[in-house]
Design goal:
heterodimer, A: alpha/beta, 18 helices, 5 strands, B: about 260 residues, 11 helices, 7 strands, globular
């Protein structure tokens, strides 16, 4: 066989590939422009829901930051151009009374430019505030925008579905068993936290893929850990947040999973309610389930906030403990009196005053009647 | 849906007409109504379909004329065997058309305009293009829904096909085609497995195309019977019904049938 050199097809096709990428990029830009227009046109209600979803996503990936107001610039492309002074004033009153309820959304475009929250920014400035809570979209480059837009369209994705989707995505793209993925991530995150190097990983989120891979390689991770972290970064999700907020959903009890899927229970509420387990309540898991279902229903019926839910959960656990203590204390008292009565010798009784004895006799008669009543009732219950 | 398939290649002898004719017959046999349009001044389709050379006003040139009234010059072909393939013939007059296209205000869009204004009911329309990347294939690009690229497994042809892709990506943007025609795939033609370079390229070409998300269909093998069949004005199916090369068209024909 001759060892003839094969034609170098890669060089033949390199220009064609560039043309294709250029063409696809332009198409993508067109598509995004259309999508943005659609979002703008879709009416403020839908826009608000989508902004809420975006806010939530940014909170979970990058966290809420406190940004000095003078660093924030209004957006010249702000779709809402009219800001009635009344509306700014009413927002000011709300800010003064309740504080800032939701973070504003900023874009890093040289300066920090407002993507959503100009009214809050104007009001806060009028009030003379120094800082605003904000979440930041790093760089609105096409790909990142695409990711954001995609997640905008998946606002209905609850954290449990999200956890399962992420695990599926990771399992599909690696040869790691789906069941092992949360544990692998958890081990890596815990170790990186101990080494105080988790922030390095989070910083890689906005980096290019090459930089991400290099950055992870520098951390000396195990192969599977690196694969998991790499894919999460590529998906623009914060691995620490996945480990802390998303994957724990997978371990929730079936009743809570069902409530999340079917009744729209929020993930944070689910995590709080998960504390109502047999161990914390000092009951069997079946008894704990009954209590948990009751509390879950209350939380949803009264639309309790996450804080109030946590409080309710803690109160429930505390009241269970108190009831137990009260119960055992009462039982102790009966035992104690029984003991004391037994210790009461005939010599002691003989030596007592007649008044004392009559009083004791009265009390004993009365108690005896009460005891007979109770014993009769519970005796019947027990027979049944 | 109606598929308008442009068979484009900028290398001569890559098998455009052979592929056009055999796809037309395969799909017709599956019950679809097929029109073949010859955009090639050489008029090879006339030969491959056993027809006589047409008068200039009975060619595609008439369709591109500003005064086209919608009576498509479609000639039924292989009528002894099937009744659902018709041909719009090409001819030397198309060289003149190509020159005029350059100055025409609707230049590249003329064929698409005619197909829009005077629509055809055929399930599949195949544009057999000349071996250049000039105004005539450009017109096919603007009129088609899909393109298929026949390529000989020779370095020169493969390199030419890569250039063709640059041409495609440039012009779909430049002509602002919406929806953009899709690349159905590449079809390696005249594959001779006794030749090392053919075997090599038959392996490496699909890898390159796969990186671009472009499908490579199974190669059509080389056979002198293709030339013999074209001399008879017949597809190989009718000339040598049991020829083994006929199997090579199945996958691409099925792919077309599934989109229709």
């Amino acid at each position: 066989m001759s060892n003839r050199k094969a034609p170098d097809l890669t060089s033949y096709f390199s220009a064609a590939k560039q043309s294709q990428q250029l063409s696809e990029a332009e198409e993508e830009i067109q598509r995004l422009k259309v999508e943005i227009e659609e979002l703008r046109a879709a009416g403020s209600n839908e826009l608000e829901t989508q902004l809420a979803a975006l806010r939530e996503q940014l909170e979970s990936t990058a966290g809420i930051l406190s940004i000095p107001i003078e660093q924030i610039q209004p957006n010249p492309e702000q779709p809402r151009q009219t800001f009635l002074s009344e509306s700014v004033e009413s927002m000011s009153r709300s800010l003064e009374k309740d504080g800032q309820l939701e973070p504003i959304i900023l874009m890093r475009r040289g300066d920090l430019v407002i993507f959503d929250g100009e009214r809050r920014w104007r009001s806060a400035r009028a009030l003379g505030w120094q800082n605003l809570h904000a979440v930041i979209i790093s760089e609105p480059v096409a790909l990142h925008r695409k990711a954001l837009l995609t997640s905008l369209h998946r606002e209905d994705l609850n954290p449990l579905d999200k956890a399962e989707a992420i695990v599926r995505e990771l399992a599909n793209n690696t040869d790691i068993d789906a069941a092992d993925i949360p544990r692998i991530l958890n081990t890596a995150v815990r170790r990186l936290n101990t080494q105080k190097r988790m922030s390095q990983v989070v910083e890689l989120m906005t980096a290019t893929e090459d930089v991400q891979q290099q950055g992870l390689a520098d951390l000396g991770l195990e192969e599977r850990e690196q694969a998991v972290l790499g894919l999460l970064l590529d998906l623009q999700i914060n691995p620490a947040s996945v480990d802390a907020n998303i994957f724990p959903m997978l371990g929730l009890a079936p009743d809570l999973k069902a409530a999340i899927r079917e009744s729209g229970l929020k993930g944070v509420h689910g995590m709080a309610l998960a504390k109502l387990n047999g161990k914390n309540l000092g009951k069997t898991e079946d008894e704990a389930l009954t209590i948990r279902v009751q509390v879950t229903q209350k939380v949803m019926a009264e639309k309790l906030s996450a804080t109030k839910t946590r409080k309710l959960v803690n109160e429930t656990i505390a009241s269970q403990a108190k009831e137990d203590v009260k119960l055992s204390r009462n039982i102790k008292q009966v035992a104690k009196v029984t003991g004391n009565l037994q210790k009461l010798s005939s010599e002691t009784l003989a030596a007592a005053e007649i008044d004392q004895l009559t009083q004791l006799q009265e009390i004993l008669k009365q108690k005896l009647a009460e005891i007979e009543e109770i014993v009769k009732d519970t005796g019947e219950d027990r027979l049944v | 849906m109606q598929i308008r398939l442009a068979v484009i290649s900028n290398a001569g002898g890559s098998g455009k007409t052979t592929l056009s004719v055999h796809l037309a017959y395969e799909l017709a046999k599956r019950g679809f109504k097929v029109a073949l349009m010859d955009l090639d001044p050489q008029g090879s389709l006339t030969l491959f379909c056993g027809l006589t050379p047409p008068e200039p006003e009975q060619t595609l040139a008439a369709v591109l004329n500003d005064n086209f009234d919608g009576s498509w010059p479609l000639i039924p072909c292989w009528t002894n065997h099937i009744d659902n393939v018709a041909i719009c013939q090409g001819g030397m007059v198309l060289t003149q058309t190509a020159d005029e296209l350059v100055l025409h205000k609707r230049g590249a869009y003329l064929l698409n305009d005619s197909l829009t204004d005077h629509s055809l009911e055929h399930d599949l329309i195949i544009f057999d293009c000349p071996a250049t990347l000039g105004p005539l294939p450009l017109m096919a690009l603007a009129a088609c829904t899909h393109i298929v690229v026949p390529v000989q497994l020779e370095p020169k042809s493969v390199q030419g096909a890569a250039r063709l892709l640059e041409w495609y990506y440039y012009h779909i943007r430049h002509l602002r085609l919406k929806p953009q025609p899709e690349i159905l795939g590449f079809v390696p033609c005249q594959y001779d497995r006794k030749r090392a370079v053919h075997r090599q390229l038959n392996q490496s070409l699909p890898l390159q195309l796969e990186q671009m998300g472009i499908r490579t269909f199974p190669a059509i093998r080389n056979s002198t019977e293709f030339a013999n069949a074209s001399g008879q004005g017949l597809p190989l199916h009718l000339h040598r019904p049991s020829h083994s090369a006929l199997a090579d068209f199945k996958e691409i024909a099925s792919s077309l049938a599934s989109i229709i």
